[in-house]
């Protein structure tokens, strides 16, 4: 498989992009904090959900974007490059809005939402997508019979995953590991149905994420930031839509299983805040990963160590989709049961943990 992949890509362009990303990760990991305070216009991040100490660059997602753009620049006609080009171009509105948030923390939820919607719509215009068939009685039939309704539904689904991805980006390694597992799920499915083009796309988007992880976990030298979380939520959601649209023989509920963690985190958070009569757009420290962090801190574990332990403590949540998918991916019934099981696992974790006082 690796030999086939290397034969089908521009290896020189990929090496240039990788070296460029490594250089940027090193610069922003080791030189951001010493020079941070020289830029008076930059603001320290003071969110209630903050769990790290010191000033750390939140531009890891920008570096991943630049790396993919660099490869696209030097290899415009390779396999998967039409997708990479569409991803890069359509992400520019999101980049402009969310980098402002990552640097100055001065954007509103509405502004970021507009950026996500525009990005999703531009992608659907630029890249030909066969939308998946929705396996839901009545509701699915209504969607499948209307191109406009299908377009709106999948745009909404992409925004949900982008937002959910941002919610889980609160501890070292948690969001990137969740995305890596989602990529592995799609890679396994694409391998099972001999979809080589999907495999190449997935490897290309995984490389910047793996490089980022080397600097993020456990060292916490650089963060993805809002743009990185939204960007990779955008990437994984588009890949999932494209794959299941190209393979209608597989039940589309497999996509729900693959993207369970960010989707359920957002859904549960909105419902929880509505019940508590809170504003769903306002951040709080009652997300699952934050509850685990504060529990670890209460045991007199250092903040840095507590932060690093959150990701492995939640491995049953972000790792279960891959383990389950291998056994259930071609059965609608088993896939549905797997989603129910992992939902109970999440809720069990959440309700078993003590509530953190704001």
Could you name the key traits of this structure?
single chain, mainly alpha, 18 helices, 72% helix
Question: Explain this structure to me?
Answer:
- The chain has 358 residues and is an all-alpha fold.
- Helices cover 72% and strands 0% of the residues.
- Helix 4 packs across helix 11.
- The N and C termini lie far apart (50 Å).
How would you describe the shape? globular
Unreliable spans: none
| Secondary-structure element order, N to C | HHHHHHHHHHHHHHHHHH
Total separate domains: 1
N-C termini distance: 50 Å
How many distinct helices? 18
**Number of β-strand runs:** 0
Question: Over all CA atoms, what is the radius of gyration?
Answer: 20 Å
List the helices and strands and how they pair.
Layout: H1 2-8, H2 11-30, H3 32-36, H4 60-74, H5 81-90, H6 92-104, H7 109-126, H8 139-144, H9 147-167, H10 174-192, H11 196-216, H12 225-246, H13 253-258, H14 260-275, H15 288-298, H16 303-313, H17 315-328, H18 332-352
Helix pairs in contact: 2-4, 2-11, 4-5, 4-11, 4-12, 5-7, 6-7, 6-12, 7-9, 9-12, 9-14, 10-11, 10-12, 10-17, 15-16, 17-18
């Amino acid at each position: 498989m690796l030999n086939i992949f290397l034969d089908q890509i521009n290896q020189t362009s990929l090496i240039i992009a990788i070296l460029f990303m490594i250089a940027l990760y090193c610069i922003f990991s080791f030189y951001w904090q010493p020079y941070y305070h020289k830029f008076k216009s930059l603001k320290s991040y003071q969110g209630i959900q903050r769990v790290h100490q010191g000033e750390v660059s939140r531009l890891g997602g920008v570096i991943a974007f630049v790396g993919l753009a660099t490869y696209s620049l030097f290899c415009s006609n390779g396999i998967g490059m039409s997708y990479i080009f569409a991803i890069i171009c359509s992400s520019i509105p999101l980049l402009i809005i969310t980098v402002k948030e990552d640097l100055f923390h001065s954007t509103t939820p509405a502004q970021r939402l507009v950026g996500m919607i525009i990005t999703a719509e531009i992608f659907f215009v630029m890249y030909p997508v066969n939308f998946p068939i929705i396996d839901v009685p009545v509701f699915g039939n209504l969607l499948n019979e209307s191109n406009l309704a299908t377009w709106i539904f999948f745009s909404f689904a992409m925004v949900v995953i982008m937002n959910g991805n941002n919610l889980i980006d609160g501890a070292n390694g948690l969001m990137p590991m969740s995305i890596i597992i989602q990529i592995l799920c799609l890679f396994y499915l694409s391998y099972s149905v001999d979809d080589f083009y999907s495999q190449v796309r997935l490897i290309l988007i995984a490389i910047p994420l793996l490089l980022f992880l080397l600097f993020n976990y456990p060292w916490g030298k650089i963060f993805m930031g809002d743009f990185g979380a939204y960007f990779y939520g955008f990437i994984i959601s588009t890949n999932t839509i494209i794959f299941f649209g190209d393979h209608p023989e597989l039940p589309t509920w497999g996509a729900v299983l693959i993207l369970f963690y960010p989707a359920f985190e957002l859904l549960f958070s909105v419902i929880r805040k509505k019940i508590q009569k809170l504003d769903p757009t306002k951040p709080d420290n009652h997300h699952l990963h934050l509850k685990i962090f504060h529990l670890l801190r209460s045991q007199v574990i250092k903040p840095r160590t507590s932060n690093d332990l959150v990701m492995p403590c939640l491995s049953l949540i972000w790792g279960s989709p891959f383990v389950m998918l291998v056994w259930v991916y071609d059965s609608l019934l088993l896939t549905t049961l797997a989603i129910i099981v992992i939902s109970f696992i999440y809720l069990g974790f959440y309700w078993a943990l003590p509530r953190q006082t704001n």
